Amino acid sequence: MAQEKVTLSVRPRGKPIKKLPEEVTVVSTGPTNELYKELAAKSDTSVNRLRVTKGSDGALVPNSKDVLIQTTGLRQQSTVYVRDLGPQIAWRTVFLVEYLGPLLIHPLLYAYLPYRARTAKEPSYLQTLCLILIVVHYAKRELETLFLHRFSAASMPALNIFKNSGHYWLLGGLNMAYWIYRPTAPAAGDGNLVITNTGLALFVIGELGNLSTHITLRNLRSSGGAERGIPRGLGFNLVTCPNYMFESIAWVGIALVSWSLSTVVFAAVAIGQMALWAEKKEARYRKDFGGKYQRKRYCMLPGIW
User: Fold this and answer.
1) pLDDT per position as a tens digit, 191-230
2) CA angle 166-169-171, nearest 5°?
3) Global pTM?
4) Using alpha carbons only, what angle is made at residue 15 by residues 81 and 27, rounded to the nearest 5 degrees?
5) Total H helices, total E strands in the chain
6) Could you tell me if 97 and 161 are in contact, meaning their C-beta atoms sit under 8 angstroms apart?
7) What are phi and psi of 156, to 5 degrees?
8) Can you tell me the distance from the alpha carbon of 90 to that of 158, in angstroms, rounded to the nearest whole number?
9) How far is Cα 188 from Cα 194, in angstroms, rounded to an integer?
10) 44 φ, ψ to 5°?
11) Which of 44, 92, 218, 247 is the most exposed place for a label (fewest CB within 10 A)?
12) Distance of alpha carbon 293 from alpha carbon 7, whole angstroms
């Protein structure tokens, strides 16, 4: 049986795209990523730079191997608009670059600041413990990026790497490291054993819980796929995004160990951003899964948010 083909009218959205065809013919029962491949080949550009929307209602046509062209509502002579998103960079690359900053900056300032102050005093136990916790945290992030995470989108606008990296390299790197490892920093003292041990316990609980939820989320998606599922497991019965909850717990632990306002500021910014992401995730689950999804009262922190 011959496969039914449809010819779509193609129009640019925004700045013109060189070589963009006026029409494109695709198999209606084929996946939408074939439409993206055809448009990219004919316009001689990367498929990751393209965003395709329907002319009828402006709805996004996803670049997916799991969504069929006919299920999007596209028919013979339907119009699609194509936007050039500009230079792109892989999500995995962005994550690796982001987390590399603190991994380099904290050990360097840990070694440099006592030398710069011309003091024979070695870094304190608390300062060394802070370094270990922060390096473990970001090394875990790098390993998860390389071997665990599965991304639903291949890339993001290349310029975003500067914005994203600024949060980690400046706020979480230079700012935190300077105020933690100075010879006159609060962490240079003896601290309080109860507070330190409490912070260490929270860090371990947070990191292990975060790893567990990341494994759960990974198992919802096949390699290279963009399918979505309802996550179940540790913490998911309490909040929408327990990965963010455990991340927050880990940073509270680091703040207790470091005795540094700079850590509190970084953690507050990170937790605030994660709360916004969690709220959007809850809305997405409700939209995608309807009655199959058990709505959560709290998105990230039980009893708070």
Assistant:
1) 999 999 999 999 999 999 999 999 999 999 876 666 689 9
2) 75
3) 0.88
4) 25
5) 8, 7
6) yes
7) -140, 165
8) 8
9) 17
10) 55, 50
11) 44
12) 37
